[in-house]
């Protein structure tokens, strides 16, 4: 049987981002799969680009990865009580393509932030932003990773049993959703 394809989307560009670490931990706990990380180094959405040269190649590559994935896991930071502009920009660009890559796609949403709420507000907003795309967003368990600087070991793995248990349950549900 073919291994499922899991796409990880981190709403942070920083090389040592805790959101990127979290999607990698999600992939590890998901189990055997073909895992890829999305590249959100995209130009800012501009209708003149869309109308002129058209959808940029890097945007189309992202859309193609979303479409090809059996499931997607998204982790958003919380900047000023909302998801990052980088993530919003990627969603805006994807919505402008002719395909509907998110349609009926199993999606697990999570957040990681330095504060004590773990990005709960940004995750809630991200869920609302995704509604128009009509994916199958898992409703829980909710994964809000707080105090992120103290949650990973030197290998990038979570150290808290509570967070590991929550993320494992979310990944088990995501795997089950693929076969639904």
Coarse morphology: globular
Name the helix and strand elements from N-terminus to C-terminus, one letter apiece. Answer: EHEHHEHEHEEH
Largest sheet: 6 strands, parallel
Roughly how much helix do the residues carry, as a percent range?
25-40%
Number of strands: 6
Mean pLDDT level:
95
Helix/strand class = alpha/beta
Radius of gyration, Cα only, in angstroms?
16 Å
Number of helices: 6
Query: How much of the sequence is in beta strands?
Result: 15-25%
Residue stretches low in confidence (pLDDT < 50, at least 5 long) are: none
Distance between the termini: 16 Å
Give an overview in words.
This protein is α/β, with parallel strands linked by helices and 180 residues long. Helix 5 links the parallel strand 4 (106-112) and strand 5. The protein has six helices and six strands. The longest helix has 18 residues, at 161-178. Strands 1, 2, 3, 4, 5 and 6 form a six-stranded parallel beta sheet that branches. The mean pLDDT is 95.
């Amino acid at each position: 049987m073919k291994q499922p394809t899991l796409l990880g989307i981190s709403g942070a560009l920083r090389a040592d981002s805790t959101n990127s670490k979290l999607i990698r931990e999600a992939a590890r706990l998901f189990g055997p799969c073909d895992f890829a990380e999305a590249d959100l180094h995209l130009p800012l959405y501009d209708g003149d680009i869309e109308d002129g040269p058209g959808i940029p190649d890097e945007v189309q590559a992202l859309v193609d990865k979303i479409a090809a994935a059996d499931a997607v896991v998204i982790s958003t930071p919380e900047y000023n009580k909302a998801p990052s502009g980088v993530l919003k920009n990627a969603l805006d660009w994807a919505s402008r393509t002719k395909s509907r890559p998110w349609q009926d796609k199993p999606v697990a949403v999570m957040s990681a932030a330095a504060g004590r709420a773990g990005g709960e507000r940004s995750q809630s907003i991200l869920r609302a932003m995704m509604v128009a795309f009509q994916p199958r967003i898992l409703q829980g368990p909710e994964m809000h990773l707080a105090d992120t600087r103290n949650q990973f070991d030197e290998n990038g793995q979570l150290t808290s049993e509570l967070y590991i248990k929550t993320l494992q349950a979310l990944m088990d549900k995501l795997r089950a959703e693929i076969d639904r």
